[in-house]
Amino acid sequence: MRIFVCGMGVVGRAVCELLASRGPELRSRYGVPLTLAGVSDSRAIVLAGSDSAELDPLAVVAAKQAGKLGTMEGAMPAALPPRELAGRCQTLGIDVFVDCSPTDLKAAAVPTERMLAMLALRIGVVSVNKGPLATAMPALLEAARYNQVQLRFSGTVGGGTPVLATGSTLNRGETVTAIRGIVNGTTNFILWKMATERWAFDVALAEAQKLGYAETDPTADVDGWDAAAKVVILANAVLGIRATVQQVSVTGIRGVTPERIASAAAAGKVVKLIAGASAAGLTVAPQEVDAAGPLNTSGSLNAVEFTLSSGAVVAITGRGAGGVETASAVLRDLIDIGTMR
Ligand SMILES: NC(=O)c1ccc[n+]([C@@H]2O[C@H](COP(=O)([O-])OP(=O)(O)OC[C@H]3O[C@@H](n4cnc5c(N)ncnc54)[C@H](OP(=O)(O)O)[C@@H]3O)[C@@H](O)[C@H]2O)c1
């Protein structure tokens, strides 16, 4: 199976490294040969020389780290329009386009167009970029269905923790009727520090930034938009609700006070940023949850509860981010696609 990896940051490079380290094992275990045939970053696209040629994933990573991706053989400027890039991918026999480019909900049009161009040429898409899914998931799912090609996005929710796969598996026996949980590790870390160390919001945010959990611009996390993107993906993929991020009622955690956290604690509760999806709607907001329940996770851990038609509740907990973890979700998607062919 021939792959194009778009985005050579933390996740894209980890995908290349995993292709190199696990490729032979995955080939013998699942019968799926994974071949790198193209990569890109914000400035350059590097393509294999022909439909039987391949790129060495470790050479690509080394070139990227040396700032020399644009000087590799087969490199060209990144300014190819989406349809032209898709056409080149088709000519090179690329089966799956892996999108590891940055999530930006306000600038999702170009990556969405790129994915639609790939799907239209029956090139499968694996995305960890949440932007196109949050803003245009119904259209992307329809394009994949219409063109009978795979669209996968395991790494967008829960990083390496198989949150979406758990929801899909549960749906086979019963119906998942509602989902709620913690899908943003940065806000969980901040609220956890506010509760356990009695820090003010600003102090906890500064610590999260120091430890690399929060970006310099923390808006997407603390104002709830990252969680909103993920709840849209969960709602579409698991509940079959065809929504976009515009339909989510979003409240972030900037207004959570030490007093609210203290009064929750006195009642045996903790305040968490809870993403929820059901037929009643999609929400992201700080909520009080049981201190003794599965949603009271420490640090940056994610936790998601699925309510089933029988009333049973199943929870999954794990790390929600990390380059290698998220790249491992990409590999799971690639193997799933490869074993279906
Ligand atoms: N890191 C995680 O733990 C994690 C977990 C789950 C999901 N994700 C998602 O995974 C994606 C990648 O995350 P990351 O941490 O790897 O980000 P990152 O380190 O910032 O890397 C982003 C990469 O995308 C490239 N890029 C930017 N614009 C591009 C364009 N128009 N075309 C092609 N490439 C472009 C950048 O190029 P330059 O190198 O030239 O700047 C960079 O190589 C994001 O959508 C993120 O939300 C990340």
Structural account:
Helices cover 44% and strands 21% of the residues. By secondary structure, the chain is α/β, with parallel strands linked by helices. The protein has a seven-stranded mixed beta sheet with strand order 4-3-2-1-5-6-7, with helices on both faces. It has a six-stranded mixed beta sheet with strand order 9-11-10-8-12-13. The longest helix is centred in the N-terminal third of the chain and has 21 residues. The chain is globular. The N and C termini lie close together (10 Å). The model has no long low-confidence stretch (mean pLDDT 97). NADP nicotinamide-adenine-dinucleotide phosphate binds next to helix 1 and helix 12.
Summarize the structure.
The chain has helices at 10-30, 57-65, 82-91, 109-120, 130-147, 163-173, 185-196, 201-210, 219-222, 225-239, 258-266, 323-340; strands at 2-6, 35-40, 44-47, 75-77, 96-99, 124-127, 151-152, 176-182, 248-250, 269-278, 281-290, 301-308, 313-319. The chain has 341 residues and is α/β, with parallel strands linked by helices. NADP nicotinamide-adenine-dinucleotide phosphate binds next to α1 and α12.
